Amino acid sequence: MTRTSDSILPGGRGLTFWGQWLVAIGLTTLLLCALAVYKTGTLDTQYRILAVIAILASVPAYSLLRVYHKQHGYLTGLARLLCGWLLLLACLTVVAFVTKTSELFSREVALTWAILAFTAQAASYLPLQHFSRRYHRQLQSERTSLIIGTGDLALELADKLVRHQHEPVVGLVASDSAELPSNSLYPILGGLEHLRALIAEYGIRRLYIALPLAEAEQIEGLYIDLLDASVDVVWIPDLASMMLLNHSVSDIGGLPAIHLNESPLTAYPTAAFTKAVMDRVLALLALLALSPLMLTIAILVKRSSPGPVIFKQQRHGWNGQVIEVWKFRSMRMHDDQDVKQATRNDDRITPIGRFIRRTSIDELPQFINVLQGSMSLVGPRPHAVAHNDYYTGKIDAYMARHRIKPGITGLAQVSGCRGETETLDKMQQRVELDLAYINNWSVWLDLKILIKTPFTLLSKDIY
To answer: What is the membrane topology noted in the UniProt record heading this document (predicted)?
Structure first.
């Protein structure tokens, strides 16, 4: 199955990625070889092997972080380049450690190479991005397009083509049963009977069919009629009314398939594996670093009120499976089936509980959940099963937020949606952000959320 959406490798942006990657890896390889020869007088075998491994490992490392995505700004692109380079260096370090070959390399060569190679890549990034975007815009400007359709879908498509793709749209063509818009920025050039003449008159290179699904028979007839018209034909399905989740298009044995709803963890297995490794490594490091604090909190919780130190609550995890989430107990024991959330000045919260909730220290045992694999560092926050049962019938696609593993922090939390959701609108907003996270998930997005999380821990909405 061939996937054409944004995945671990750069599908539609292939030329953008591979061209810039080739320049970057060429610079780093030349620098490595030059430094090795300068230091040792010859290019020893270990440096040749290192160069080959660096070339191979740079592809998934840079692809995962979408280093050369054409839509990045310069500073964002440099930040991704730095993260990609550090990830590549980490991979090379692990390989050297596992194979016990680190002593074969000069530390001076390795350190100098790490600094100079990134500097060279950073210096070449701006001109490469400028050239890539200029070349892309030139190609797009040479492609004159025409849209068949006059409805909302056609108008939205025209706006996106002009604003985001820089693709000229000469106008719209009305279908047989079309209702003409009263106000449109794009001229309606005629009906379907004028299509052939319009293609010839305007030198059309690409036709977009943006008609309602109810006109499927007409769409098929149009396509067959245009097979010999020497133009590209693109069909834009009218799926605006559907709540798509991580949607994409693929080919299954020659049959086009539209994925309306798919978990990122199954859609992009390589990126999902990277997320799982990153989760466990960072969770283990966090537990080691925070163990003295966690021991102190455990003692204080035990002395605060009767009950266990760890509060274990059933919540829904990936694909709606019930998992057991751990927290330091911050409340006096109460019925787990109670739908009521913690509120400001809640008398169920103990004094030490108020402090650990206010500082989010009560969430630290969830690093153990991450090590177990039931949670992730980043993802939609898991809600109690009773809360999920309550909201499922009140908010559309509420349970769709479980199409990825729940996290200790998430997009909703760093976007201001923390604390009590005392109204349905607040929960709706949180769910929308959770679904936006699933639709836009990437390793880079996880890193950004992790970096932002510490700055949100003292939010006034946490209690």
So the answer is: Multi-pass membrane protein
